[in-house]
Amino acid sequence: MSEGLLTEIDHVAIAVVDLEAAIAWYQEVFGATVAHRERVESDGVEEALLAVADSYIQLLTPIREDSPVAKYLANRGEGLHHVGYRVADCGAALQAVKDAGGRVIDEAPRPGSRGTTVAFIHPKTSFGTLIELVQE
Ligand code: CO
């Protein structure tokens, strides 16, 4: 059994149709501040990270029709998309999932936003929630 591989909640990702409207709502209602914005071309998304203590709310919107987030919005509408867990070693955490017989989306760690290294675990393995392992 693996112990202590998840060190913190890195981000909670929410898929939205109108990124500007979602950012404005968090700013106006909660006084949240945008810590980072990025277009991730490889994933077909634009994201805004709103700081909450040492974690983030990640607002995600698709920039292409073939983006997985576009498909998600079409099928399920806006809402919780995935949870990002911070890990010290993305490869080791991914291997722990594989060793346990889990299904992964990324066979190997890959570049994420903010210069992070990430890997996604299939929600069929992780009890219905898409999980992203995030190494800073
Ligand atoms: Co994420």
What does this structure look like?
The structure is a single chain. By secondary structure, this protein is α+β, with helices and mostly antiparallel strands. The chain has one domain: 2,3-Dihydroxybiphenyl 1,2-Dioxygenase, domain 1 (Roll), CATH 3.10.180.10. Helices cover 23% and strands 40% of the residues. The protein is built from 3 helices and 8 strands; from the N terminus they run βαβββαβαβββ. The chain has helices at 19-30, 68-76, 90-99, and strands spanning 6-15, 34-40, 45-52, 55-62, 79-87, 110-111, 117-121, 131-135. The chain has an 8-stranded mixed beta sheet. β3 and β4 (55-62) form a beta hairpin. The longest helix is centred in the N-terminal third of the chain and has 12 residues, at 19-30. It is globular and about 45 Å long. The structure holds cobalt (II) ion (CO). Cobalt (II) ion binds next to β1 and β5. Residues 11, 13, 58, 82, 84, 132 line the site of cobalt (II) ion (CO).
Question: SSE layout and pairings?
Answer:
Elements: E1 6-15, H1 19-30, E2 34-40, E3 45-52, E4 55-62, H2 68-76, E5 79-87, H3 90-99, E6 110-111, E7 117-121, E8 131-135
Parallel strand pairs: 1-4, 5-8
Antiparallel strand pairs: 1-5, 2-3, 3-4, 6-7, 7-8
This protein binds cobalt (II) ion (CO).
The site of cobalt (II) ion has 6 residues, from strand 1 and strand 5.
